[in-house]
Amino acid sequence: MQYLAGAADGQTPLDPDEAAQLLRSSVTTRGDLDIVEQENIAQAIRWAFARTRKPYAVLDEPFLRRLHKRMFGDVWRWAGVYRTTARNMGVDAWMIPQEIGGLIGDARYWTAHQVYGIDELCVRFHHRLVAVHPFPNGNGRHSRLAADILSVGLDAEPLSWGRELDLEPDALRARYIGALRAADSGELTDLIAFARS
């Protein structure tokens, strides 16, 4: 899976005003968009892992916004900027800064006190971040990369996010979305297993 957009199921539909913020006029199809986003994300991965291996680097609100900007800043004007519109998922837009602050505080506590094993800690961080849904789009890819940065900062390998499964992209994404939905109900077992599969 890496950080690809994948099929339409589970992706955030773009608000027309947000879609008008596309920086590249050459992008005319979803396939074109996936290609340019993946190129931008590859640059962001190199930037993120070259910066630091300290766990607290990603547990920082400006870093999380900067990471999103690095992942999508060559494609979208709104990259790194919290959404201001309602979504069918995530918290109300006005609650985003408070929810991100709470997540960072919790994750710092979990890390300092070793409340969870590394995989569970990183998956919990990922799940809460994607549940807040802070950005207009790219939240799943952003939260997976943020969890990987945290994992490496805690001296573990990046999570595999289903790369070891022999599944077509649509089936892989369906399994990921199913695991997220189970985690929404408080059952993280499937998401933790998926993250290391």
Write the layout of secondary structure elements.
Elements: H1 16-19, H2 30-51, H3 61-72, H4 96-112, H5 118-132, H6 139-153, H7 169-184, H8 189-195
Can you tag this structure with a few keywords?
globular; Fic-like fold; 197 residues; disordered N terminus; mainly alpha; single chain
Give the number of DSSP strands: 0
Q: Would you tell me the structural class of the helices and strands?
A: mainly alpha
CATH topology: Fic-like fold
Helix content: 40-55%
> Beta-strand percentage?
under 5%
Architecture (CATH level 2) name: Orthogonal Bundle
Short description:
The chain has 197 residues and is an all-alpha fold.
What does this structure look like?
- The protein is mainly alpha-helical.
- 55% of the residues lie in helices and 0% in strands.
- The protein has 8 helices and no strands.
- It is globular.
